[in-house]
Amino acid sequence: MRAMKKTKRLMPRKLVARTNPQSIAAEQYRTIRTNINFSTPGLDSKVILFTSASKEEGKSTTAANMAIVFAETGKKVLLIDADMRRPTLYRTFELGNNIGLSNLLIRKGKLKQSVKASGIQNLDLLMSGQIPPNPAELLESDALDELIEEMRGLYDYVLFDSPPILSVTDSKILANKCDGTVLVVNTGKSEKISVEKARDSLATAKAFILGVVLNNYPMNKENYYYHNYDSQFS
Amino acid sequence: MESTFNLNKFLKAMQKRKALIILVTLAFIVFSAVASYTIMKPVYKATTQILINQNTVSNQDFDSLDIDTNLQLIGTYNVIIKSPAILANVIEELQLKETVQTLTERTTVNNIESSQVVSLSVEDSSMEQAVLIANTTAKVFQEEIQQMMKVDNVSILAAAETTGSPKPIRPDPIFNMAIGAIVGLVFGMGITLILEQLNTTVRSEEDIEEMAGLRILGVVSPVDSNLKMEKPLNLTDRLEKDLHAGNEKDKKVNAAKIGGSY
Fold this sequence. Notes:
Chain A is an alpha/beta fold. Helices cover 48% and strands 16% of the residues of chain A. In chain A, helix 11 links the parallel strand 6 (180-186) and strand 7 (209-215). In chain B, helix 4 (84-94) packs across helix 5 (100-106) and helix 4 (84-94) packs across helix 6. The longest helix of chain B has 26 residues, at 173-198. Chain B is built from 10 helices and 5 strands, in the order H-H-E-H-H-H-E-E-H-E-H-H-E-H-H. Chain B has a 4-stranded antiparallel beta sheet.
C-alpha cells in the first residue's frame, strides 16, 4: 500500500496523457499518434523507436505518453525500455527492474512472463532488465529479431525507448529493426547540428524516420484554441 | 551548415523580434530628441544681401559680356568677403574674441542664382550677434572694396535683421529624430541578425522543416506543474498482475542502484 501512495504522488508529472487526458499536452500526444498512424499505413503491428540526439531531450516521457495514447484507442501496446545503460521506465511506473529486455536477449525467460502490467488498460511494460556489460552486442543478436517477431504477434504497437543516438550505437541498431523512428527534439536546447547528425546516423542505419517531435514547445494561440474547443464539448 | 542568406528566414526573424527593433528605434529617436533640445547649442543664421554692380564707365551698352564680367568679379568678391582683409576689420570693429579662421568658418557667401546679388550669411549662437556680424561685414566690405577694386557700386540690398522669435538653423530636432529613427532601425535589425546567428538551437518548427528529410510529427508543450490530476490512476489492474509476477517490489531498490552512464 505504501508503494501505491508513492506512485500516485510521482506519476502525475510525467504521465500527463494518463493523469490529465483533457490537457493540452495530452491532446498534442494524440495529434502525434494520428500522424504516426498516417505515416505507417498498412502495418498490422507497428514497431516504433523513440530516440533523440542527446540525453535529456524527453525520449522516455514522450515514449511513455505515446504508449498511453496508443492504448487509449483500444489497441494492445507494449512499451519497452531499451535503454540498458540508463534505464528510466521502471522509475516512471514505479516498478522493479530485475527482469526485462536484457534477460530476454540472452534467452533467459519468456516474453509473456517478463512483461508487466502498467496499471493502464491495454498497456504492458517491458523493463530494461539487469544492466548488461554489452548492450550493443545484445541488441545486434538474432534474439532481438526473434523477440520483435514475437511481440508483433502479441501487440498492435511496440514502442522502444532508447539511449541517445549520438552517444551510443544501440539506437542505430534498434532503428534498423523497427518500422519507424521518432526523433525527439528539446525545443530551445537541442542544437540544430546535433539533430542533423542524428538524422544522418539514422539514414546510415537505413532507418525509416517518421519525423520529429518538438518537446517543450512554447505555448501559442493554437494550443489554447484546442484546449477551449476540447473542454467545451466534454 | 546553413550559410546562405535566406530572405524569408531573415524576415521571419525580424517579425519575431519586432518588439526589440521597435524598442531600439524608439530609444534612438528619444536620444536624438533629448540631444537636440538639451545638449546641442542652438545656432542662428543671419543673412544680408549685397548687390554688386561693376558698371563704372557708363550705363549704356549693358550687354551680356558685361554681365559675364560681373559674374566673374562676383566670384572674386566672394573670396574677398571671407578674407582676413575684411574679417580682421570686422573683428576689430566689434571687439570679437575670436580669430579670422573661426569667423571664416561661420561665414558663407553665396551668389544667388547667377545674379549680381551676393548673400552673406553668418552663423552664431545668438541671433543678435549673427545679425550684427553680418551687417558689419557687409558694411566693412562696402568700404574696403572701394580702395581695393576702385569701385563704389556695392550697395546693401537687404540688411540682416532680428525677427520676433528667431528659429535656430541647428539643431533641427525633426531632422535629427529622423536620422535617429533610421540609425535605430538599422541597429535593431543588426542586433536581431546577430542574435539569430548566435542561436544554434532548434527553436521552431521551421528549423526542423529546413533540414532535408525531416518533418514534424507534432509538438508537446510543457505541462503546468500546478495542473491538478483530472483522473486518478486506476491501479487495480496492476495489483492483480503483480500478485502473479511475484514479490518484485522488494528487489526494486537494488535495481535502482545500478546506474549506467553513456
